[in-house]
Design a protein that fits this description.
The complex is a heterotrimer. Chain A is α/β, with parallel strands linked by helices. Chain A has 13 helices and eight strands. Chain B folds into two domains: 16-298, Rossmann fold; 418-477, no CATH class. The longest helix of chain B is centred in the N-terminal third of the chain and has 23 residues, at 20-42. Chain C has one domain: 3-Layer(aba) Sandwich (Rossmann fold). Chain C is built from seven helices and eleven strands. Chain C has a six-stranded parallel β-sheet with strand order 1-11-7-4-2-3, with helices on both faces. Chain C has a three-stranded antiparallel β-sheet with strand order 5-6-8. In chain C, a hairpin with a 7-residue loop joins strand 9 and strand 10 (202-203). The longest helix of chain C is centred in the first third of the chain and has 14 residues, at 44-57. Chain C is globular. At the A-B interface, helix 1, helix 2, helix 3, helix 4 and helix 8 of A face helix 1, helix 15, helix 17, helix 18 and helix 19 of B.
Chain lengths: 241, 478, 218
């Protein structure tokens, strides 16, 4: 029986309880034995991306210690957080030190949720039913840093009743950018509105993505625009029966 | 705009962008993106070319002294003059000196970002020498007195009506609001200048070390005019433009026009090695190459930052950058904009002046995907953010104290698991005051910077409790 | 003896004073990375077709002509474009074709190719040959000399290049290998253009507005 550790992410922790619950249920249904290291906090991305490398180290240490206790792979619902750990944690520590070894070890076994399903468990159909018109926003780190170009669409393909509609400028950034949304709020807004307009024009009633931060941005934007279009995490869509 | 800025206030500018600018810029970038995509599909070896291009540029950067020395030797053998300019002031002084020695009263200029970098036009005007931009877009913004809004089409933010009004005002010509007519007027006006000017000033796209050859890539013909009609040609070129040989050039010529505008090749590519050799062939009697350092050599010490010098100035990064497309070129405060501007200006001007630029990005990575020479722009952006936030061997940190404090507190809160978890339990209670229905439409500072544009979802934060409850249930039932 | 810029570069790159600069030790690190293999050309007929097609795409007029069709084509061009003054390279081949005689007979005033720039600027038509042709990009490659002045392909509003199949080269690699030691080369790929005003394509900004390329097929 495969074992995995749940990485819930700070945004998931604060805002997306039901998504995390769905992630738990789907994985357990697929026969994965789950652990949840409760000492986890945040991957440290907001600090790292803003240039506070020294300050990130303490946060990263907490992460690798929390997840280093078990040898099981780590699964999380966020492309950017997973990429942070996978690509940048080893950069934070000096090679040859025990911290570096632990960081490199943890980095080598962390997966984004759809990546874990399709590439590790080799599952493409979770028995989901979602008879709606769905469009997909390809989030930046998921797409470009993790290189996940087909996993989400593969899973959506097997959802019963789902009608897939291509989103115009699917790969264009939504303007979230983590702290960017509060450091350059006007540009972030303009980018968000551009994305929302494309979604409104798509004819879909649902927009799906693999990133809590982008979801916050787009869902909020759609609501502000008075739209009834549902913005959900792919995990929530895959949990629909 | 061509003066060196004291401080680049990108965020402030971004709060007041006239709506016409993003609209115009996006039209241009959309066209170039479509053009580029069409050309890339035609070349199945595109990714290979990018890698080779990247390798050659990297190799050249790491051996720049060797190639520049060879270049100088070859230009001299060809009968050209080589001048070394450590600073912008040196370069201006050198060009002025050459101009004075030849009694130059008017110079015609083909598009050159290096001359904008050093503010050459101002230096010439101050010395009583007329410096006329001849690239149509550069000519228009020279008349308008503004900077460029895009690397390739610098006047794209101006409507034809505005340009016509500009011609009427500055040239005293009854100009109609028709692009073709306006171009015809410019052709007539500038033709007279080409034929009269005593000096032609150009930049250069590449410098071939193998033979001392200046390569110029243009579309309008003004580049040819500036370097063919006057008896004197002065080229001001950054030292980073040197490439090893002609074979290397094949790679860059295949990558450049396709990446920039979606053309296979630009209309004119000139290969100039020294002055003319015979009377009657046309071309300058004298050729001067001014090699511009202006801080580049110091940046070579930074193995991450120096990858910026792989740049071949195609503008593809700007064409895909959603941040750039929403603000246009002026926000970047200097002669170069878009993602490449965000990593070049902070290195050349310093992170005191340009500390906002590395942050003007969501790190989406679209730029790195299209860069023909694989510059890792997001990596360099983060590298420069680190310089701003905590300093490194090249500069001290320049972040305002309140932000440093915020970072410190954030790090503390996120690293102490108990404190984070306490906060996670308390926040929903506090934030429930601001909840309206299923959203938080307005929150206190600093979250107000978010809610200005869209609401926050409610702080549910229930997972940990849920997990704990089911774990104990499981334990009870087992 | 070096200079402050070179010294600064060497300091940044970590070179010591002992590192030699002689051409034989030109490459300090691994040899220059390998370049992509050059293109293999198709048949002359096919290359010519590709070449002329590309010229068309670039708003030029590309035609295959036999030697006997030159007179008529020149008459058509002169009338269509209202040519009153022309200048032409006086190369052996163009002399052999009798270009100046043909123009004279059409009542076109001839300006010497070695005239000064002010005189040549008054010409409507400039006639050259080419040194090389690149089919994939519709490029004509011109050198420069007293016999082949640069102004002829640049100043008049119409540029006519009379070329032959033996000038075709598979790609840039070949042209560079043959011509890298020339003091001047220009690649001309279409008519002068800009999109600087509201992205509207405009031809003939500073260079020639009309490009004609006649491929003479004996």
């Amino acid at each position: 029986m495969p074992k995995a550790q749940l990485f819930i992410t700070c945004l998931g922790d604060q805002f997306y309880t039901s998504t995390l619950q769905n992630m738990t249920n789907i994985l357990e249904r697929l026969g994965v034995e789950l652990v949840f290291p409760s000492e986890q906090t945040c991957c440290g991305q907001p600090l790292f991306n803003n240039g506070f490398e020294d300050q990130t180290r303490a946060v990263a240490l907490n992460f690798i210690r929390a997840f280093g206790k078990s040898e099981a792979p780590i699964v999380g619902p966020s492309g950017s957080c997973v990429s942070m750990v996978k690509h940048h944690y080893p950069e934070l520590f000096k090679p040859g030190t025990p911290e570096y070894d632990l960081a490199a070890d943890v980095a080598s076994r962390i997966f984004e949720f759809t990546e874990y399903l399709v590439n590790v468990l080799k599952v493409t159909d979770v028995g989901a039913v979602y008879p709606h018109k769905v469009t997909y926003h390809a989030t930046c780190h998921y797409l470009r840093e993790l290189g996940l170009k087909s996993e989400a669409k593969t899973l959506l393909n097997s959802v019963k009743g789902l009608e897939f509609i291509s989103l115009k400028e699917e790969e264009t950034c939504c303007g979230f950018g983590g702290s960017f949304s509060v450091t350059f709020p006007e540009i972030s807004r303009a980018m968000m509105e551009h994305k929302v307009n494309d979604i409104l024009a798509s004819g879909a009633d649902t927009v799906v993505m693999c990133e809590p931060g982008c979801l916050m941005n787009i869902a909020g934007g759609l609501h502000k625009a008075g739209s009834k279009i549902r913005a959900i995490h792919i995990i929530d869509l895959l949990a629909s029966q | 705009m061509t003066e060196t800025p004291a401080y680049i206030g990108f965020e402030e500018y971004s709060e007041h962008v006239p709506a016409s600018i993003p609209a115009a810029v996006q039209q241009a970038t959309d066209r170039f993106v479509r053009g580029r995509a069409a050309r890339v599909v035609e070349l199945p070896q595109w990714e290979e070319l990018r890698q080779i291009g990247s390798d050659i540029r990297q190799h050249t950067i790491e051996n720049m002294d060797v190639y520049l020395t060879r270049l100088e030797e070859k230009v001299r053998v060809a009968g050209g003059h080589v001048h070394w300019a450590e600073t912008a002031e040196d370069a201006n002084r050198i060009v002025l000196q050459i101009a004075k020695e030849h009694n130059v009263r008017m110079a015609v200029k083909s598009k050159s970002m290096a001359t904008e970098e050093i503010g050459l036009n101002h230096a010439l005007e101050a010395a009583g020498i007329q410096a006329i931009e001849t690239d149509l877009g550069e000519y228009i913004i020279q008349l308008a007195g503004t900077g460029p809004s895009h690397i390739i089409v610098p006047a794209v933010h101006l409507k034809k009506e505005e340009i016509a009004a500009l011609f009427r005002e500055k040239l005293g010509i009854q100009a109609p609001s028709d692009p073709i007519e306006l171009a015809r007027i410019a052709r007539e006006v500038l033709r007279e200048k080409f034929l009269k000017a005593e000096m032609g000033i150009s930049g250069g796209n590449f410098l071939i070390a193998e033979t001392g050859t200046l390569v110029m890539v243009t579309n309008e013909g003004n580049g040819r005019m500036c370097t063919t009609m006057p008896d004197l040609h002065v080229a001001v070129v950054g030292i980073d433009k040197v490439i090893p040989d002609w074979e290397s050039l094949t790679v860059f010529l295949k990558l450049l026009a396709r990446s920039a505008t979606g053309q296979k090749l630009s209309t004119y590519t000139q290969f100039i090695t020294g002055p003319r050799r015979e009377e009657g062939e046309f071309g300058p009697k004298e050729f001067h190459l001014v090699l511009l350092d202006n801080g580049r050599s110091k940046i070579l010490k930074d193995p991450i930052g120096r990858e910026v010098f792989k740049c071949i100035r195609c503008g593809a990064c700007a064409n895909v950058c959603p941040v750039y497309k929403n603000v246009g070129g002026f926000a970047y405060g200097w002669f170069i904009s878009g993602p490449i501007g965000a990593i070049l200006s902070p290195q050349m001007l310093g992170t005191q002046t340009a500390r906002e630029l590395p942050y003007a990005s969501t790190l989406c990575g679209a730029c790195a995907e299209v860069c023909p020479v694989k510059i890792p722009i997001p990596t360099i952006l983060r590298h420069l953010r680190r310089r701003v936030a905590q300093g490194d061997e090249f500069a001290e940190e320049t972040l305002p104290p309140p932000l440093r404090l915020t970072a410190g507190l954030t790090s503390f809160a996120l690293a102490q698991s108990w404190l984070y978890r306490l906060g996670t339990r308390m926040l929903p209670v506090f934030m429930s005051i601001f909840k309206r229905g299923n959203w938080i439409p307005s929150a206190p500072y600093p979250l107000s910077r978010w809610t200005k544009a869209r609401p926050l979802p409610p702080f549910t934060a229930h997972f940990r409790k849920w997990w704990k409850a089911r774990s104990s249930k499981k334990k009870d039932s087992s | 003896m070096t200079n402050p810029v070179i010294e600064s570069i060497r300091k940044s790159l970590g070179c010591t004073a002992q590192t030699p600069l002689s051409p034989s030790t030109l490459l300090r690190t691994s040899p220059r990375p390998a370049i992509h293999a050059p293109r293999q050309p198709e048949s002359t007929g096919s290359e010519t077709e590709v070449f002329l097609n590309e010229i068309k795409k670039l708003s030029g007029v590309g035609q295959k002509l036999s030697y006997t069709e030159i007179d008529a084509s020149m008459k058509a061009l002169v009338e269509e474009q209202n040519v009153r003054k022309a200048t032409a390279w006086e190369t052996p081949y163009l002399r052999q074709l009798g270009i100046t005689e043909i123009l004279n007979s059409l009542g076109v005033e001839l300006v010497s190719p070695n005239a000064n720039k002010h005189e040549m600027a008054l010409c409507d038509l400039g006639i050259t040959e080419a040194d090389y042709l690149l089919p994939e990009t519709g490029t004509i490659v011109l050198g420069s000399s007293a016999e082949k002045p640069r102004g002829v392909s640049l100043l008049p509003r119409i540029h006519l290049a009379i070329v032959r199949p033996e000038m075709l080269r598979a790609d840039m690699h070949q042209v560079f290998a043959e011509a890298k030691d020339r003091h001047y080369l220009v690649f001309i790929s279409g008519a002068s253009r800009t999109a600087d005003i509201e992205l509207t394509l405009t031809l003939g900004v500073h260079g020639p507005k009309n490009l004609y390329v006649w491929m003479i097929d004996e």
